[in-house]
Amino acid sequence: MASVDTSELGIVVVGTGMMGTDHLRRIPQSIAGARVVTVVDADSARAAAAVKLAPGARTAASLTEALSHGDVGGVLIATPGDSHHALVLEALEARIPVLCEKPLTTDAATSRLIVEAEVAAGQRLIQVGFMRRFDKQFLEVKNAIRDGGLGSALVGRFVHRLDVAPPRFTEADLIPEAVVHEFDTARWLFDDEIESVEVLKPRANAHATQQLAGPQLIVIRLAAGGIVVVDANMDSHYGYEVSGEITLEKGTVEFGRPSGVTYRRSGALTSDVTPDYRARFVDAYNAEIQAFVDGVRDGHLPGPSAWDGYVATVVVDAGVAAQQSGKVETVSLPDKPAFYAE
Ligand SMILES: NC(=O)c1ccc[n+]([C@@H]2O[C@H](COP(=O)([O-])OP(=O)(O)OC[C@H]3O[C@@H](n4cnc5c(N)ncnc54)[C@H](O)[C@@H]3O)[C@@H](O)[C@H]2O)c1
């Protein structure tokens, strides 16, 4: 058995694709009080390449093998959503805290099973990777709304754009993979639950990827009457943008616009747009993982809970139904367990 360094939280990173590799790189570079002990990927060649980013770490073929080493204080899951259910339950059974990338799972029924397992364990062990809750701009917007000086939030206009849709990205991926972030953001910023979802499809973009015809508008209605409209466009052909504006009773709050150095040249006024989520949200990912590490060490996990992950998945199910039916689809939620009261 490997020797246990109790001064640092030993983390297993499961999944070494785009997101897992990014997290693997940040833990030694930017996270205090933690080190990667084991790197797991179903593809052993990927694990072998990725482990070089984490000095002193080993590879394992499965989470089961990683947990057998006995030096694990936390699990970071960055595999595709359809593997999250089994991996999260395995970590829960071992009573090891988990930071699970969004989505918690790919359907409400399996997310509910995770919530029930965590409640039965009697201890918060799961944080879901809705990293926008750790982004400085989003936090400022949250504080501006909570402060109350501008009155209640009435309308949100959110933008979620990629430069070009990833390979194999289809219409069916838009809501579970991308808009799930806005479902969580809308609930969190408005401090309200989503009552219904509608999906509007404008004319197709002739330059979009084959499988995704173009942008879609997602209309989110909240219980207290607020409305959020998401402009979700995976083929913007200019870069990555997550931005928006909230209309309140006495003003507005705008966030996420390109910022930094502005050039005036060749008859144009320009500033840079981030190429992807890793660049735009680097500080938020750092803060999210630091909060997880600190939370595990303090015995109090912060941030988006399994309940938040479950609710987002329920709304995703309604959103996918709305995308297919063209109708307003209602969201039906059970009562929130007292276990998740803030
Ligand atoms: N928070 C964000 O902004 C954000 C951004 C992108 C992706 N994500 C999420 O991160 C997760 C990973 O996305 P990605 O783009 O890195 O995926 P990816 O396809 O690039 O990589 C996934 C990796 O997981 C491995 N894998 C698959 N099943 C496994 C299993 N059961 N056990 C071990 N390894 C397994 C694959 O071999 C692959 O290396 C997804 O849940 C995705 O939604 C979050």
Structure notes:
The protein has 342 residues and is of the alpha/beta class. The chain has helices at 18-30, 44-50, 63-67, 84-93, 108-121, 136-147, 171-190, 277-280, 282-298, 306-325, and strands spanning 9-14, 34-40, 58-60, 74-77, 98-101, 126-129, 153-161, 194-200, 216-222, 227-233, 241-248, 251-255, 262-265, 268-271, 329-330. The chain has two domains: 9-131 and 284-305, NAD(P)-binding Rossmann-like Domain (Rossmann fold), CATH 3.40.50; 133-276 and 312-337, Dihydrodipicolinate Reductase, domain 2 (2-Layer Sandwich), CATH 3.30.360. Helix content is 36%, strand content 24%. The strands form three sheets. It has a seven-stranded mixed beta sheet with strand order 12-11-7-10-9-8-15. A hairpin with a 2-residue loop joins strand 13 (262-265) and strand 14. Helix 4 (84-93) runs parallel beside helix 5 (108-121), helix 5 (108-121) runs antiparallel to helix 10 (306-325) and helix 7 packs across helix 10. The radius of gyration is 20 Å and the shape is globular. Residues 14-20, 40-43, 46, 78-81, 83, 101-102, 129, 131, 177, 277 line the site of nicotinamide-adenine-dinucleotide.
